[in-house]
Structure formats: structure tokens, C-alpha cells
Amino acid sequence: MSQRTPDNTTHADIDSEHHAAWGAPPSERYEALARDWRPLFARIRASAVERDIAHRLPHEEIKWLREAGFTRLRLPRGQGGVAATLPELFGLLIELGAADTNVVNAVRAHLGFVEDVLTAHEAEWQAHWLGKLSAGDLIGAGLSEAGSAKVGTFATTITRTPQGIRLNGRKFYTTGSLFADWVAVAAQDGENTVYLQVPRTTPGVEVIDDWDGFGQALTASGTATFVDVAIEPDWIRPSDTRFPYAVAFYQLVHLASLAGIGRALADDVARRVRRRDRVYSNGNAERVADDPQILQVVGRLHSAAYAARAVVLQAAKAIQRSYEAHQDAAASESRRQEARSQAVVQAHADAHVEVDQSVSVITRLVLDASTDLFDALGASATLRTEGLDRYWRNARTISSHNPRVYRERQVGAFAVNGTVPPSFYRVGKG
Fold it and tell me: Region (Disordered) spans which residues (predicted)?
């Protein structure tokens, strides 16, 4: 029989209900929107530990999301989406991250490409890709390289031959591409950088799951090779302009993943403490669930998760303002007016700074929580089959992608000297 709490709910009720103390939703309609997705998120989470141990890639889970329309959330209703705002999107990414951050990272490149399409000035290119995205096409990553190219350039190249355009090169960190229909590629075209989308199954393209990281092991973030791939001209974007809040957006996806990890581990530990019947002789109660020191640990974990979520959603508002400023400027006849131009530039700068300010705080909160959780549990919690180690492994891996030390420096440079963070990042030899 379930034990009653002082407010007359049962422990079983608390265990099965959606946690109600995470803070206000990011919009009035968010709960109605999220309610439709939570059963699918729960289904994804149910197999997360088993997949992590068996190294089973989430092909099926990503298929569920695609079929349900998750990859179209930001699209207008006429293109099969719900016109989700960025705070709404990031709220859902936190919840999906609580289920499995591998899945969040696997769709990260796709979500960024959607922003490229929504903010594009090239009407024909935009319409073409809105149609593809509306049909459910999925985009994977093919920008980063692990080779010898210098910072700001790519070793991957396109060449123009009598037989047509050809793509050759090798990419790494191709997150999500093994699950995708298209690979978003950056390449050198002489002195210029070009962006193109290449069908994953076209001849000459090979995507390999050789990612060997100790965390985020199921994102298929491995190698993609392109050998004399015949490129159709309409696969190449007409310009190299990307959405102005790109760096902030991609980093905030990582932060949403971290917030999701914080939420998952906080709930996981609370559930285990509630059910735990083994106690230490030097404990403070006959039931672990009544031990004030253990409850303090659980409270610390939930506080960290609460704060991480709140910071992500606050930063998402800044990105939304950047998006709106960009769209307003594109639609306005007065876009050249100096005051309006300054406001747009300021909105973009604020988005980058607010996300940079979030990185160090969220990283520290979640990494500490992923270690502290073991203080509330016994040695059996360290068993590989329990899967609790994946929280730290995944959080540590995610937070290594864009080092927080640089983010902290950029925030300091902005605060002291007004130096705006760079709007695009490149990795390579110095």
C-alpha cells in the first residue's frame, strides 16, 4: 500500500506524475504542447540504459521522433510544424535530454539547419528546403574536420571539372549523419567557403560510426568521407551566410542537454532513495527516505537541475529576440536606418553573451551533480548495469565540445571592454 505524504498524495503518485516544481513553462501553450511529447520521451528513456550498455544506436528512437513531427517543430503550420518559439523548442529539448542526450545531439545539426532555412534571404533556396523539411527529411552534421586544415579553412574541397562539380574530403564529429537523409557539408571552393547538402546515400559518401568517446557514445559522431561525389548545383547554398545566432543556438542545444541530464539524475536519485530499504548503521533514520543528510543531497541535485533549466530558458529568450530582430530587419523597409541597425546588432550580441554567461554556470552545476548523486546511494549504485555513470560521462563529453574557459574569457572581455563574442567558430591548426 502506498504511503501518504502530508498533502495526501502518495509516493506512487509522485513517482508517476510529471514533476511540477521545475518552474513556469516558457509559454502559455507549452504544457499542452509538451503533453503530446512526454509519452514518447518516456518511451525513449525506458531503453536508454540498455542502449548505452549494448552500444545500440537510437535508429528506432529517432524514427519515432521524425514520424511524430519533432523535427518539424519550428516550421510554420503550413509546412507541418507548430511554429514553436525558441524557448518552447529548448524547453522540449531539456525534456528530451532527460530521456537521452544522445538523441538530442543526433538532431542538433538538423535543428540548426532549420534555423538556416527559416532565416534565409534566398527565397528560392528557402522554399526548396522548406519543402524538404516539411516532407520529413533529416539533416546530419558534416562541418568539422580532424585533419590538418588551418583555422578558418577546410581540407574538404569542391572542384569544377568537365564532368561536373565534385566533392572530396573527410569530416569528423559528423553527429547525426548516420541517421539522416542529407549531410550538411562545409567545403572550400578556391578561396571561398561554401555550404551544401549532400544525400547520405549518394555514391562516394560513406558515414562510419567510429566515435570512441567515453560519453555520448550513441550519437554516431564519427567519420564521413566524400570521394569524387557528383554534386548537383542546387545542393549548394547560393551564399555562405548563416543565421546570426548560430553559435549561441548550437551551444544552447548542448546546455539544454546538460539541463536534461541534471533533471534526469535528480529524478532518478529521488526515486531510488524513496525505494531504498538498506541503511547504514551510522545513518540518521530507519528509512533512507527519512535521513536528513540524504534528503539534503537529493535537494541539492534538484536545485542544480532547477537552476540549469531556468538559465537555459532565460538564454533561449535572448536567442528568440535575435531571431525576431533578424526577421523584422529583413521584412522592414527601414532596415537601413541606423537606429534599427544598431538594435539588430545589439540583439545578436546579447544572444551570444547571454549563452556564454550560461555555459560556466550550467556546466559546473551538472558536472557536480553527476558526481554528488552517489553520496545519496550505496555502493550498488556504481554497478554498470544501473547506468548512473552515464550521467557524468555524457555531461563531461558534452561540456568538452566548446571549452568553458574560453566562454568565461569572452564574457569578461565583453564586460570590461565591450568586445562582442565571435559569431562563428572554426577549429583547425593554428
Answer: 1-22
